[in-house]
Amino acid sequence: MAFNGTWKVDRSENYDKFMEQMGINLVKRKLAAHDNLKITLEQDGDKFHVKEVSTFRTLELAFTLGVTFEYSLADGTELSGSWVMEGDALKGSFVRKDNGKTLTTVRNIVGDELVQSYSYEGVEAKRIFKRA
């Protein structure tokens, strides 16, 4: 259960370009770059409880590995998809409801950090979190 704990965003790589590719406008991208995101992950077998707290919203959700669920991003983009475990990585594949394009997210523990990688339409980005 290496993912368990509260993680605070420390830094990002190529995140603005990724958000631009997602169609997020400049003002929202600038705000998102300083969202002070904190993620609390609790894993119990194949079930996860996630709490996301940022400057803009607080969201709680629960999901089961391999089971499709609905999710919306902070900018209101609606998605449908699921998470699976592949080795030590938590991999999510989500389809946008507005255009049918796929957003892929991978969470890995690297050393003492949670690395969350994103891929959308050929643009990749990372957000790196440290334990809060």
TrEMBL record:
GO terms for molecular function: lipid binding. The keyword Transport applies. Residues 5-22 form the Cytosolic fatty-acid binding proteins domain. The keyword Cytoplasm does not apply. PANTHER family: FATTY ACID BINDING PROTEIN. Transmembrane segments: none annotated. Belongs to the calycin superfamily. Fatty-acid binding protein (FABP) family. This is Cytosolic fatty-acid binding proteins domain-containing protein. Keywords: Transport. Coiled coil: none annotated. It comes from Hemibagrus wyckioides.
